[in-house]
Amino acid sequence: MSKWSTERSEAARIHAERLAAAQAREHREARALIADFVTRATEANLPSEPLRVGDYSSSATARTPLSGWYLKGDHSVGIDTDGNFYVLTARLSLKDRISGIRPKPEEPPLVIGAGGRDGESIDLRDALDRLLPPKR
After folding, report:
1. Residue 29: Cβ-neighbour burial (10 angstroms; 0-12, 13-18, 19+)
2. Is 36 helix (H, G, I), strand (E, B) or coil?
3. In 3D, which of 128, 92, 85, 130 has the Cα closest to residue 109?
4. Residue 9: inside a domain
5. From CA 63, how far away is CA 53, in angstroms rounded?
6. In angstroms, rounded to a whole number, what is the distance separating the alpha carbons of residues 40 and 64?
7. Side-chain half-sphere CA neighbours of 121 within 13 A
8. Distance of CA 124 to the CA centre of its chain
9. 135 in a structural domain
10. What local confidence, expressed as pLDDT, does residue 119 receive?
11. pTM
């Protein structure tokens, strides 16, 4: 391997480590925001609702065993009452529509929808704050 190749490989490795560290910090901060929201929502007796998964290509939905809050008006993301973050869209089969589906929690972002094709993104903090009743 040439010196140039070795240097490029090392630079790429360092870049990947820095990116991973930044993503880990973002996820920790987002998890803390969600945990604070769940505490405040519980204290405010904010009702949760059953969360459903919507199909990518139709208006069909599937039940989940989850209860929580939708973070976007299109119900594409939400958090459960335990503070787990979910993307609530999937390719649903007929079986999913009938029997339900159990989505897997994902690492939460600080900006929901960032980089998406629809151009609709929202800061996690704003999405959570708008769900809470106004402070008196």
Report:
1. middle
2. helix
3. 85
4. yes
5. 7
6. 24
7. 11
8. 9
9. no
10. 61
11. 0.85
Residue 56 counted as domain residue: yes
List the structure tokens of 69: 């809050």
- Which residue type is seen at 106? E
How many domains does one find in the chain? Answer: 1
Distance, in Å, from the CA atom of 34 to the CA atom of 95, rounded to the nearest integer, reads: 32
Place of tokens 């930044």: 22
Q: What is the pLDDT along the chain (136 residues), one digit of tens a residue?
A: 788 888 888 888 888 888 888 888 999 999 999 999 999 999 999 999 999 999 988 899 999 999 999 999 899 999 999 999 999 999 999 999 999 999 999 999 999 987 666 667 899 999 999 999 887 6
Residues 105 and 84 sit within 8 Å (Cβ to Cβ): yes
Residue 101's domain comprises 3-129
Phi, psi values for residue 78, rounded to 5° = -165, 175
Token pair of 103 as six digits: 């989505």
Question: Within its chain, how far is the Cα of 71 from the centroid?
Answer: 9
> In this predicted structure, what is the pLDDT of residue 116?
60
Q: Where is 99: in which H helix or E strand?
A: helix 94-99
In a domain, 136, yes or no: no
